[in-house]
Specification:
Helix content is about 10%, strand content about 25%. By secondary structure, it is of the alpha+beta class. Strand 1 and strand 2 form a beta hairpin. Helix 2 crosses helix 3 (about 135-140). It starts with about 25 loop residues before the first helix and ends in a 12-residue tail after the last strand. InterPro entries: Formyl_transferase-like_C_sf, MPG, MPG_sf. GO terms for molecular function: hydrolase activity, acting on glycosyl bonds. Its EC number is 3.2.2.-.
Length: about 200
């Protein structure tokens, strides 16, 4: 993926509608790599995600619906936002048909839009550190519990398909203790904006 330019922003691809997410979460997740995620015009290229499915114990939906995870049970194309370890917010995109309870966790972005706002919110200048983790990117984009259950194809959220080919690599997910063997983490090979490099 081309490095971020300080003088221009990459062109945006077609808008991703909610129907894009009405597929197997393991198909949606890699297809999101290289797409652009914006919240009120601030965001960047998705460079790292993880897929979660109700049939495996690392998913919040594994034990059935609760007030917190109800949005995961569909329909697809909505945001699922939750507090991680009581510290930071994480944003997920709900996938598959209603009742399936699958979602993609957005782990890292390459900042391209609204860098001044991101730097102000994160209190740092290093572009590589602005969105290099699920809690970092929600802080940079101003995502909170107020965004939970919002549709992914209406303001303030906008998603645009990737406009160029990217080399997608897969590996095991990070920071979990169950179903650790599943290679459901996807990212841009060699990206400097990942939360953690993929093994070579």
């Amino acid at each position: 993926m081309a490095p971020v330019s300080k003088t221009s922003t990459p062109r945006l691809g077609k808008v991703l509608k909610r129907a894009f997410f009405d597929r197997d979460v393991r198909e949606v997740a890699p297809d999101l790599i290289g797409a652009t995620m914006l919240v009120d015009g601030v965001g960047g290229l998705i460079v790292e995600v993880e897929a979660y499915h109700h049939t495996e114990p690392a998913a919040h939906s594994f034990n059935g619906p609760t007030p917190r995870n109800q949005i995961m049970f569909g329909p697809p194309g909505y945001a699922y936002v939750y507090r991680s370890y009581g510290i930071h917010w994480c944003v997920n995109f709900v996938c598959e048909e209603a009742g399936s309870a699958a979602a993609v966790l957005i782990r890292a972005l390459e900042p391209t839009h609204g860098l001044a706002a991101m730097r102000r919110r994160r209190h740092l200048q290093d572009v590589h550190a602005l969105c290099s983790g699920p809690g970092k990117l929600t802080e940079a984009l101003g995502i909170t519990i107020a965004h939970n259950t919002l549709p992914l194809d209406r303001p303030p959220i906008a998603l645009h398909a990737r406009t160029e080919d990217v080399e997608v690599v897969a590996g095991i997910r990070i920071g979990i203790t169950k179903a650790v063997e599943l290679p459901w983490r996807y990212g841009v090979r060699g990206s400097k904006f990942l939360s953690k490099p993929f093994p070579k």
